[in-house]
Amino acid sequence: AFSKESFKCYLNLEKLPKQDTETLSKLKEIINLDQILKIKEKVFLLKRDCSKEEIKKLKEVLKDSLIVEKFYQRVYPYKDLFAKVLGFVTAEGKGQYGIEGFYDEILKGKKGIVKVEKNPLGISLGIVEKKALKGADLILTLDFNIQKKAFELLKKWQKKLEFKWGEIIVADPFTGEILALAEIPSYDSNFYYKEDPEKFKIKAIQELFEPGSIFKPVVVTAGIETGKITPDTKYEDKGWIRIGGYIIYNYNQRSFGMPSVKEVIAKSINTGAVFIEKLVGHQTFKKFIGLLGFREPTGIDLQGEVYSLNENLDTNRDINFATASFGQGIAVNSLQMIRLFSVFANGGYLIKPFIVKEIDFPNGKKVKVDPPIEKKKVISSKTAEILTQLLIEVTEEGFGKSARIKGYYVAGKTGTAQVPYTALGVNKPGYSKKTIQSFIGYFPALNPKVLILVKLFDPKTKTAEYSSALVFKEMGDYLAKYLNLLPDKRD
C-alpha cells in the first residue's frame, strides 16, 4: 500500500453565473445539470480524484467557481489479495482494520503548524513553526508469493468443496512471523465503501470458533507433562461415555476396543480425550488451557483481536470439561491455534505471532521486530517431542493421511467441529449440521520450518480428512519447493 497525491474538485455555486448558459452547457458534460440546480449547499463535490488534465479543463470552464483541494489517497495495487490483513484508510484519513488500523498513528504522521504571535496592537512578535512529520514505512513478515498461492488455493478449492468462507495461515513456528494470512471472500481495499462491512473482519482474529479435534493435543499435553499418561496408556472404549445426564459419542458412534493414547490422537477418539481429562483433573486441565494461551489474546499486531476467557470452565461442571477435552464448548481464534502448535514444533515455547518486522521512521531510524521479546517456556522439550511424534502418527497411520507431503514427515491434526446455533445467529441451544473443518500441522516434522492452518466453513464433505487436509497438502507441496526444504523422510 502507498499514498499518492490526489485532488478533489468542488464547484462553488455562489460564484457560478446562473445566466451564463454557455458555462452551464459545458458543465453538462461533467455532471447532470438538473442535479446541480437542485443542490442547496454552497459548495458541491464534483469529483473526488481529479487528474491534472481534468483540473485544467474544469478551470477553463468554471474559472473562479472551481475549488481544488489537494489530499493524499491510499492506493492498494494488489486489490483483494492483502485486503483482509491490511484493512483500509477512509476518506477522512483514518486507518481501519488490520495493519492500517493497528499502526494508524505511526503510518499517518503528524500535521505541521505555523503559529503567528501578535501583541495587542496587532504587531507580529514572531512565527512559531512546528514541522510536519511524515509517517513511517512498515516492512511486513508476509511473503508475497506464499500469500498469492494461499489465496489461489482457497479460490480453487472453494469451487470443488463449496465452502462459504475459508482461510489459510502460514507461520514460522519459532519466531512467530506470519508469512501468509489469506481469507475468502475478500474485497478490494481501494473500493471498501462499496462492500458489506462484514467482509472487513479478519476471521482469524475477530471471530471465535469451536475448534473440535485440533484442540485434543491440549489435554494430551496436560497428561504427558504431569506424568498421568504415556503414549502407550490404554483404556476401554465402548464408543460412548456417560457424563452425568449426558452421553458423549465418538464420530459415527464407532468403538475402538482398547486404544492407546497414540490412537486417541491418530484416530481422533472423543472418549479417549474425556478419559485423559478425568485422569488429569479439571483444575490441571484448566491450568494448561491457560498456560497454552487460550484465556488471553495472542497480541498479534492487527486491529481488533478478540478472545475468550472460556469462563464456562470456571463453573466446574463435568460436562464442560469433558466436551472441552475434544474441542467443543470452548472458544478460540485461529492465531491461538497457530500458537499452540508452535509450542510443539519449537520445543515448548509460547511465541507471539507478529506481522510487522521493521518500522522505518522518516528520520532514518529503523526499529527491527525480529522476533518480539514475549517468548516463554510453557512445557518441557520432552513433552513437545512426544506430541510431535503423536501428531506424526496422525498423517502416517491415522485419519490425516491425505495431508502427507512426499519426502517429509508431517505433524498435524484434523478437526471437524459442529457449529452451534448461536454462532449462526439462531437463538437456539445445541449444534447445527454445519461444520468447521480444519487441518493444522508443521513440517519437516523432525526439523520444523513452517506451520500451516487451513480452516473451511461448511464444505460439502463429512470430515476434514476430505477437505482441509487436501488443501494443506497442496499448500505444503508448494512451500517445500518454494522454500527449498530438505526432506526428512524416504517415501
Give a description of the structure.
By secondary structure, this protein is an alpha+beta fold. The protein is 30% helix and 23% strand. It contains 16 helices and 19 strands. Strands 10-9-19-18-17 form a five-stranded antiparallel beta sheet, sandwiched between helices. A three-stranded antiparallel beta sheet has the order 2-1-3. Helix 9 runs parallel beside helix 11, helix 9 crosses helix 12 and helix 9 crosses helix 15. The longest helix is centred in the first third of the chain and has 18 residues. The protein is elongated and about 95 Å long. The two termini are 43 Å apart. The mean pLDDT is 91.
Concise structural overview:
The protein has 491 residues and is of the alpha+beta class. It is built from 16 helices and 19 strands.
List the helices and strands and how they pair.
Elements: E1 2-12, H1 21-27, H2 33-38, E2 43-47, H3 52-62, E3 66-75, H4 83-86, E4 88-89, E5 95-96, H5 98-102, H6 104-108, E6 113-118, E7 124-130, E8 137-140, H7 144-161, E9 166-171, E10 178-184, H8 203-206, H9 216-225, E11 240-243, E12 246-249, H10 261-266, H11 270-280, H12 282-291, H13 318-325, H14 334-345, E13 349-350, E14 356-360, E15 366-368, E16 376-377, H15 381-396, E17 411-420, E18 431-443, E19 450-457, H16 468-482
Helix pairs in contact: 7-16, 9-11, 9-12, 9-15, 11-13
